[in-house]
Fold:
Amino acid sequence: MKEIRQTARERMKGFCRVCPVCDGRACAGEVPGMGGIGTGGAFAANVAALAMRRLNMRVLHDVAEPRTDIELLGKRLRLPVLAAPIGGVSFNMGGAISEDAYIEAVLSGCVAAGTLGCVGDGVPGFIHEAGYAAIESLAGAGIPFIKPWEAAEWQGKVEKALAAGADIIGMDVDAAGLVTLKLMGRPVSPKPVDALRRIIENLPVKFILKGIMTPDEARLAADAGAHAIVVSNHGGRVLDHTPGTADVLPDIAAAVKGRIAILADGGVRSGADVLKMLALGADAVMIGRPISVAAIGGGKAGVETYLKQIASELQSAMVLTGTRDCAAAGERLLRA
Structure:
């Protein structure tokens, strides 16, 4: 990983410093780029919210080989970690490799590690085209996230995603207000619940809604028919001063756990962080920037190596907290 990160540092110069701790301080306000919007406070809050949680160490038990596999939306995954949908290599990551090479590395690296990657959407169009091509090449092993466009564009991209073999589709409604899209003359807007319900009713596949940060909106998403939500503030890239996702996750889980699958992203940097998110109520997590760094620095092998590291750290944390499997993770793991 040191070699992968060093290569990424060279290739992403001017766009990402590949800091020892990816916490948003050095890149505050760098959007486009890999930073958080404005003060960078929302990005930093994600990392800080997880850092504040402490794991209760328990070693008087018989958990020696914990299971990290989960079932999520009908998929059996080797670990409860997916790659978050991030694109725009040329204007966010330095352009040292092509969009096609980047997204192929993310998705194929995830498949090799026994999980799934997500692909993004945006402007210019080659971002989603590269994602759909990679999904098709992997026989549908990937989840496309489509921005909350107006009806015609949304439907057109849905049809392309289905043609590529996708059997789960997401909408990153938290992209509403995204600076990069506004700068390109293609802003997107929030979605009223009635419109969201119609979208879900017309989809022949399962649907994930990304960008939920409050219990009331989690309930609305469930009521509208979404199969899963992602608790996310878009990596702190759309609205400054939001709380960290780990801070809002417990209340959201209390509101909808069992009704809808709950994913969470934001600030996950280690296997211990993954376990913390599970303990706070997530069924699975997404990791964004670190996987982008691994893909830029090492291609498919870089992503697979990084995810194997996360899996090893997660299993170790589960052993040292007496957590037999992912379903057994709960608030008892965390110091009150």
